[in-house]
Design a protein that fits this description.
By secondary structure, this protein is mainly beta. The chain is built from 2 helices and 23 strands. The strands form 4 sheets. Strands 1, 5, 7, 16, 18, 19, 20, 21, 22 and 23 form a 10-stranded mixed sheet that branches.
């Protein structure tokens, strides 16, 4: 099956809402190449280009893409088959009013650093004698929301600005479907990023993302928030206004999966999760923070 290309030049959103209108319609099982622009819309091309404050429109997400047959209560599976960089440089920046150490002594904002990509293997920051491996990931990906609207800067139950390093080639992400057609959109990719995204960005860059989409109808497990599948683990992903609250949501989702898998009550699943799960920080800089709870596949088979 040939891949259909859907470009940000055709359409991109800055807000996930319940009433999204598609720029393309595809069938379940479709293989797509989604072209994205960098999260700053090309505003930083040199280190003299700085962003004084968080833009009103940021993290353009290519789409929405309607997936035929998706209905509320279904699950949308998105396989991330490949992520290719479409620029020879990324950019990592600080912005006043944003970032984990915003306002701390010695932290200057705004500042921009260009991260040239050398071949397809490493990128660097001038003045620092170290190469950083290119490990592309999707920062913002999600579906139409259930009721409230969220900008593409915000992570929530629909996905959105999850900024999670596991959103990379070879992994899959599952979303609850809240609206007919699901209305998938994605962008805000990074050439590299550490867990936490401490300064507020990774190496922001344009990409071409190969994905395969599939509607899972009438799933046995009700999915409330995104779920990531890696070759080794299942990872419920949750966002909240405080780190502890996000941890609680991700843990609740993990123990519900374990309880169903092992046919035990919630308490026993909770005790078991404390032995085999593992909380991981995705990002701590967006309006909500995001965490995931990794449960090895040795203890949790496919929930769908």
């Amino acid at each position: 099956m040939s891949r259909r290309t859907i470009s940000h030049e055709t359409g991109a959103i800055y807000e996930f809402t319940p009433e999204l209108e598609p720029i393309a319609t595809v069938e379940s099982g479709a293989q797509l190449t989604v072209e994205t622009r960098d999260s700053l819309d090309g505003a930083v091309q040199s280190e003299s280009d700085v962003i004084e404050s968080v833009p009103k429109d940021v993290n353009a997400a290519t789409g929405p893409i309607e997936v035929e047959g998706a209905e509320p209560g279904d699950v949308l599976r998105v396989d991330i088959d490949d992520i290719r960089l479409t620029e020879d440089r990324g950019r990592v920046i600080s912005i006043e009013g944003f970032g984990l150490l915003d306002g701390h002594e010695g932290i200057e904002a705004p500042r921009s650093r260009i991260t040239p990509v050398e071949g397809d293997a490493t990128l660097s920051i001038e003045g620092i004698d170290a190469d950083v491996p290119v490990e592309p990931l999707v920062g913002t990906i999600g579906v139409a929301t259930e009721s409230e609207s969220h900008t593409t800067l915000v992570p929530h139950d629909h996905g959105g600005n999850l900024d999670t390093t596991d959103l990379c080639a070879g992994n899959s992400v599952y979303f609850p479907v809240f609206q007919a057609g699901a209305m998938l959109a994605m962008g805000d990719c990074k050439a590299a990023m550490a867990d936490g995204e401490m300064c507020g960005t990774g190496a922001e860059i344009g990409t071409a993302i190969d994905v395969t989409v599939e509607v899972l109808s009438d799933p046995e497990i009700e999915l409330e928030r995104p779920l990531i599948e890696t070759p080794e683990a299942w990872k419920p992903v949750a966002s909240a206004d405080a780190l502890e609250a996000a941890c609680e949501l991700a843990t609740r989702d993990a123990i519900e999966l374990l309880a169903a898998e092992h046919e035990v009550d919630t308490t026993d699943a909770y005790l078991f999760a404390s032995l085999v799960g593992g909380l991981e920080i995705s990002q701590v800089v967006d309006p909500l923070v995001t965490v995931r709870n990794a449960v090895p596949k040795a203890h949790l088979s496919a929930p769908f």
